Amino acid sequence: MAKKVKIGLIQASCPWSTPKHTLVQIKEKMIDKHVGLIDQAAKKGVQILCLQEIFYGPYFCAEQDDKWYDTAEPIPGPTTELMQDLARKHQMVIVVPMYETPQTGTYYNTAVVIDADGRVLGKYRKNHIPHCAPGFWEKFYFKPGNLGYPVFETRYAKVGVYICYDRHFPDGARILGLNGAEIVFNPSATVAGLSEYLWKLEQPAHAVANQYFVGAINRVGREKPWNIGQFYGQSYICDPRGQMKAVGPRGKDAIVTSTIDLDEILEVRKVWQFFRDRRPDTYKPLVEQLPSTT
Question: Are 159 and 142 a contacting pair, CB within 8 Å?
């Protein structure tokens, strides 16, 4: 396995909105847009690429409307198959966040991991589902994930995925490290305001605590017809010391890239023996129910 790997993140706006465009048109236009961006990433030499949360549409959780169920699809399905073709064409690992429906009436916020030869290695389903104002009505659309915290051994590195709101919970981030992740991608949809100060704080902290690389992706722009705020981009790649390797622009489409050295993980772990010094025998309260106060 190569030690130096070029990774990339795509942050992109969705300028197409309802009711001016149909859901089918929006999905087609966003897929076409990303095919072009994936081609550009390949020309930059990217070997592992991650797209943003539910990349082929707007962040529709800004409203509660069952019409958006129609944008979900099975995995594998037409979008997965297209991305498999692109992975083979570019010899690129692609992490593809999608709206998944494995059976009628069941929906997940999912990322499928495709190896550089086009094989589907597996998928991660978002475990932590928010439901709060203004405009993050995710429990209306998604069941909580049921696949745990898998790590996928791709051609270039061992990859884990943690989606958006997941990043507020350190427990799954630790499990990804215990499962052998070298790079953890967090595709997101987050707006300026309440949680922005956490954007460059939490995930570098996960990188430090678990001594792996992190790629954090955020979409950009204001999405109509809703007014929940501005998705500010600023996607970034940080190393196991929590230092920024590359940061994307605020509010603009971009492909954020960095060549990382996987040997840095061992270098850092030789200094900071967090995995040696863990005390799982003392952590039982983490999985116990809180006592009732009523």
Answer: no
Which contiguous run of DSSP H or E holds residue 244? strand 244-247
Which single residue is written with the structure tokens 């017809």?
A: 225
What is the C-alpha to C-alpha distance for residues 293 and 50, in angstroms, rounded to an integer? 43
Query: How many C-beta neighbours within 10 Å does residue 1 have?
Result: 11
Measured CA to CA in angstroms, residue 29 lies from 32, 35, 115, 177 at distances of: 5, 10, 25, 36
Chain segment 118-158, per-residue pLDDT in tens: 999 999 999 999 998 788 999 999 999 999 999 999 999 99
Mark 147-161 as b/e (b = at least 16 C-beta within 10 Å).
eebbbbebbbbbbbb
Sorted by sequence, the CB contacts under 8 Å of residue 171 that are 6+ apart come out as: 286
For 261-284, letters b (16+ CB in 10 Å) and e give: ebebbeebbeeeeeeeeeeeeeee
Q: Which sign, positive or negative, has the C-alpha torsion 248, 253, 259, 261?
A: positive
Percent of the chain with pLDDT over 90: 93
- SS3 of 205, please? helix
Architecture, CATH, for domain 4-276: 4-Layer Sandwich (3.60)
Q: Pick the closest to residue 164 from 141, 140, 136, 143 (CA basis).
A: 136
> What ranges do the domains of the chain cover?
4-276
E strand or H helix that includes residue 120: strand 120-125
**Active-site residues: which are they?**
53, 126, 164
Give me the residue label for tokens 């981030």. 173
The confidence score (pLDDT) of residue 294 equals 63
